[in-house]
């Protein structure tokens, strides 16, 4: 146990957690702002529903950018190392987020405003494309035997930490500012605050050393000249399976956060502060699910835990319409808590499972590409599709959509039965 409590180990796990918490904070404040204010401020269309749909479409831009970021940062992460690549990804993400705070709205700059917003949203996604894979590798490539699942869950815990910081700040602003002040300038403050969090993340990461797995590669010969080419030539099956395997976690998360927030404050008529309070309580169940799934991943294996999570996520899909559409805040809160708890089981083990699919030579590229390509399928379009489905057919088709997404991940996990490279 001395290895687990060593200062260097605590620093490694802290860096993997803090960095992803910063990255996900940046990502979530955009999701929250898109659900609450970006529609009328940047997309003055004919109806509130159309405005919200356009705001969700801008949200999806980052998911298109994420595989591009995964390709670029994965290339350098496999060639020059994990540490410097992680620092660069954090700076790109943080700079894009900070710049959003200074954007003009449509009323000031016309269509230049949404164009700039989408450009910076692309920058957010580009940075995050290199963030998750590097943070996961930082944790699991330093894990002692028998601890890969629990080490791999630390980057995943950045998700609830970032979500609580983002939505908690929006909740506080909603309580102390009038609606007029919030829409006028208050929404900019969370984007400004990201500069402080990025500085903390950089301070932690600059103290890191290279992972043992990458250091060992340097002794065996030169790195791959084009990691993506080697990945697609030798490991395309693992890449495809990993991509499909992460769809469930993205769909489950963004339907129970971004889509649910927009639905709850429009169709159900709850105030922004009320619904954010319910989501903040529910997100604690995501953290509990991640912690439990990390322990179970070491007791059994990450793939088996993910399979069980996908089966439960299908059930969440069928529960979505009757519970989210009930109109009862208690039942809605129970649904969100249950959905996010299940999400912990389809998300927490990914930090150990995805890197284990690939050899160290192309691990950064492989894990990043699989995670972020799956993000397009499961997360980038989820709020847009769900909003369109609910406008035309109510919540039942939204639940079916979640069930199908979860079934796709389940099939991929059942098909991809291969001993992990990290064992």
Automatic annotation (TrEMBL):
The keyword Isomerase does not apply. Keywords: Cell membrane, Membrane, Transmembrane, Transmembrane helix, Transport. Coiled coil: none annotated. The chain crosses the membrane at residues 12-33, 53-74, 86-107, 157-177, 189-206, 240-263, 275-296, 302-321, 328-347, 367-386, 398-416. One of its GO terms (molecular function) is transmembrane transporter activity. Residues 12-421 form the Major facilitator superfamily (MFS) profile domain. Its main location: membrane. It is a multi-pass membrane protein. PROSITE patterns: MFS (PS50850). One of its GO terms (cellular component) is plasma membrane. Gene3D superfamilies: MFS general substrate transporter like domains. It is found in: Cell membrane. This is MFS transporter. It comes from Sandarakinorhabdus glacialis.
